[in-house]
Amino acid sequence: MHGLLKVGYDYRKNVFKQYNTSGDGLQLYPIYNMNQTATQVINSDFVRPFVTFGTYLSQSLDYGNIAGIQGGFRSDFSSAFGQGSTAQTFYTGKGYIRLSQFNFWNSLSKVISEFKIRGSYGEAGIQPGAFDRYVTLNTRTIGTNLAFTTPTVQNNPKLNVEVSKETELGADISFNLGKGKFFTNATLSGTVWKRTSNDVIYQEH
After folding, report:
1. Which residues contact 113 (CB under 8 A, 6 or more apart)?
2. What is the C-alpha to C-alpha distance for residues 163 and 195, in angstroms, rounded to an integer?
3. Are 163 and 197 in contact (CB under 8 A)?
């Protein structure tokens, strides 16, 4: 039997910046930049910071080539989580067993050379946008003056992370077709799965 343990820390930071300007009234000579325009307007000046960090752990155990299991979790904090939220933890696990490696399968191995049953479970999350939980105002220019407007989609400080959970169960079967040079075996694989989602995030106008 052998196993593998993985432990780690992950930190990510992203700052998206968008700055758009436009100008009218370029001169005739070919020096084309914003300073050569008669009037300038700042169309947008947008900054969206995002930070997420957390830890993860994964442990796997294999018993030869007969069976194996793996389990772990990941726990993350994020600047986009809802009001008063704590770390969000996601779990994962999977396993398999090869029945064709047991002695009782020897009488069937001439026809069915491989029979493996496998299963897995996993969780994943989609977090709110960077400002989905903050009250924000949009800006626009009316004439030469700056104005503020409320967004069409209202923010919700109590948004949680959207969590999806999926369970899979499957099998792999290999058949011996003959001893020729071509098409000596065939493999049939099948999987059934079920996915559910909680705290789904959607926009309501």
Report:
1. 100, 174, 175, 176, 185
2. 10
3. yes
At 113, list the tokens: 């050379």
What are the tens digits of pLDDT across the range 56-92? Answer: 999 999 998 899 999 999 999 888 776 656 788 999 9
- Residue 82 near residue 134 (C-beta atoms within 8 A): no
Q: Which residues partner with 33 through β-bridges?
A: none
Cβ atoms 115, 87 nearer than 8 A: no
Answer yes or no: are the C-beta atoms of 93 and 118 closer than 8 Å: no
CB 39 within 8 A of CB 21: no
d(CA 60, CA 75): 18
Helices (H), 66-182: none
Task: Write the Ramachandran bin of 133: left for phi over 0, alpha for psi from -120 to 50, otherwise beta.
Answer: alpha
